[in-house]
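Deliverable D4.2, example record:
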Amino acid sequence: MSKIYRVFKRLFKNRLRAIVLIIVLVVGGVFSFKKINGNNQQSQVQTQKAERGTIVSTISASGQVLTGNIINIVSGAKGLVKNVYVKDGEKVVSGQKIIEFTLDPDATQKSFSAYASYLSAKNSLDSAYSSLYTLDSAMWAANRTFINDAVSRGLPTWDPTYIQENDNWLAAESKYISQKNVISQSKVALNSAWMSYQQVSPILAAPMSDMITNITYSPGMTFDGSSSSKRIAVIKAEGTPLASFNISEIDVSSVKPGQKATIELDSIADKTFSGKVLNVDRIGSVTSNVTNYPVTIQFDTDSQQILPNMSASANIIVDVKDNVLLVPSNAIQVQGTQSVVTVLRGKQEETVFVETGLFSDSQTEIVSGLSEGDEVVIPSFTSGSQSSGKSVFGGGGFGGGSTRMFIGR
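Output generated by the structure prediction step:
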């Protein structure tokens, strides 16, 4: 029995040593891991100094280039394109021949009828001028009679001769003035008849002087002016392009005519245009329960690359401040109703309450709470730890209601 007892005693001592050794290794490993992880976290803390600079506060909006500064050249003719007399991008003068058609029979009859109406209107105007000249002569004859007869003889105003000759002069003057109105009406009728004829004429002329572009027809092509597409080309008038953008009800009160803006077009990569706000529609419209307010922005310069209906985005500059204290926007958190940042003082992190001012996409103005040169901690986000702090520029960090995750805090 004593031999068996000694064997069991030896086995028990060996097992106890093994358990103690395992516990020591586990505890040592845990402490080592924490120390290494702590060093890694500390090494990942990023800071940036609060520095003075210029901040530009903008409002972003999306929209498209408007169809502006162009006059459509249209025709109601029908037939084949016989000749095109101008080239795309060429300067034209008012009345210059642009295109000629070979009209079909129906269009030819309409053209003749319109030209006959034009000639009739022209004759009416000539006749109105002839009548005006006759009435003008009669008016001055009546005036001379009145002056030479009634007035020169010193007739009293109640004398029948005085009254008759004065009335004759006034009546002749009234007819002359009335005829001048008839001439004005005849001129309008003549212009209307001429424009009607031009719409069905075999020759289409430029309606104004400037550069002609977007010529869409060539000799031999069929043209049907009775269809919905009557445009032959466009004349581009002098002026810079316009674009319309929609802004939200939150931003509309901050946008005013005259504010500067930068504009980017989706179709023109790596190029930014400048412009200014022309007007703001403060009535707006509601689509799918979303209220938008249109803002018109005029480009500062023109470019052949800018075409109507192109998609565009704009940043409207609502305020600019120089020599202000700036920190990265993602360094600012919210605790309750107050904004805070974490400042690194030596090796210790300290939470500081701050008052903010303007903010841009990446920077925020600090009105009070920090000094120039303070080392502000920039949170790094990971799934390793959590903070209940929220960004002042989002409901909870980078997205609505999300939790900010970072190392080294």
